[in-house]
Amino acid sequence: MARSRSRRPRCLVFYGFCGGLVGAKWFLAANVAPPEPVSGLVDDTGLLHHRTRPPRMRTRTRMPTPASLALSAGPIPSATPGIDLEERLVRVLGAEGESEAGSGSESSLPVFGVLDSVRESLSTKPNLLLQAAPGAGKTTIVPLRLLLDALRGGSETGSILVVAPRRVAVRSAAQRMASLLGEGGPGGTVGYSVRDDSVFSKEHTRIRVVTDGVLLSMLRKDPLLEGISVVVLDEFHERGVGSDTCLALLREVQQTVRPDDLGIVVMSATLLGNVDEAGDGDCNGDGDGARVPSTGSKLVATLGGTSACGIVESDGRQYPIRLLWANQVAKAMSLSPGGGRGRTSIPPLGALLRDRKLLVRTVSDVVEHAALQQAPGSGDVLVFMPGVAECKGVVRELSSRTSFAGSSDVLALYGAMPRDEQERVLYPPESSGAGIRRRQRVIVSTPVAEASLTIPGVTCVVDSGLRREPRCDSDTGMSRLVSALVSRASAVQRAGRAGRVGEGCCLRLYTENDFATLFAEQSPPEISSTDLAPILLLLSDWGASTVSEILEDMPFVDPPDKASLERAERFLVEIGALEHKEATSRNGKNSSSNNSSSSNRRFVLTDLGRTISKMPCHPRLATAIAAAGNTGETAVLAASIAAAFCLDDESSSPPSARDGDDPNLAHRVRFLVRSRFPALKRFAGKTSGRRGEQAVEALRENEDGFLDGAVSCLGRALLPGFVDLVGERKGDAAYESSNYLLALGKSCRLGFRKSPPYVLAVETNTGPDGISRMRSYVPLSRDLLEGIATEEELLYTVPSKGHQVRAKLVRSVGRIELSSSPLPSPSPDKVAEALLRAMAEHRGGIAGSLLVFLAPKEQSMVEELVSRIRLDRELTGADDWPPCFEALDGAGGSSGNTDDSDELDGHRVLMDLVEPWLGSVKSLKELNTLDILRSTLSPEQQRYLDDYYPTFVDAPDGSRVPVRYVRTSDEQPASGSASGGGGEDGNSARTTNCRPVATAKLQQFFGARDPLVIGPPQKAMVPLTLSLVSPAGKPLAETGDLPFFWREVYPSIRSEMRGKYPKHPWPENPLEAVATRKTKKQLSREESAAGDGSGTTDQKGGKKKRKRKKK
Question: Where is the Helicase C-terminal domain (predicted)?
Answer without folding.
Answer: 362-543
